[in-house]
Amino acid sequence: MLKGIPQILSPELLKVLCEMGHSDTIVIADGNFPAESMGKNGKVLRLDGHGVPEILEAILKVFPLDSYVEEPVSLMEVVPGDKVETPIWNTYKEIVSKYDGRGEKCVGNIERFKFYDKAKEAYAIIATSEKALYANVLLQKGVVVE
């Protein structure tokens, strides 16, 4: 165990976050996301039993968001015609606002299949047990300046 590191961040996940360089991306995927098929070219980490908000919060405590892009946090858009509410997005925006001075302005949406394309290119995908629909988040890493 380490001091100051959220316990939800496993040694394997900490290693991945540390290995990632500027502009690399990581996906925190909900329970319905096809993590294994999307992550064939990267790493898939399992955090079963946890939801996306708690993982997002823990990661952002140690992970800088990219300051060179307007929206380093991307959410999967709801497919037109799907009657789905996404209140979890407000939770994500609140969490992001705690760790990035741009607040919710640095959170954007990506069409579903474009999100899948970006997920296939991500450095890693974290598979969770999140039950909310359209609860996937893509983070783009920034530079540590401290």
From TrEMBL:
An annotated Gene Ontology molecular function: fucose binding
Pfam family, one: RbsD_FucU
Record keywords: Isomerase
Claim: Isomerase is one of the keywords in the record: yes
Catalytic activity: beta-D-ribopyranose = beta-D-ribofuranose; alpha-L-fucose = beta-L-fucose
Gene Ontology BP, a term: fucose metabolic process
PANTHER family xref list: FUCOSE MUTAROTASE
UniProt protein name: L-fucose mutarotase
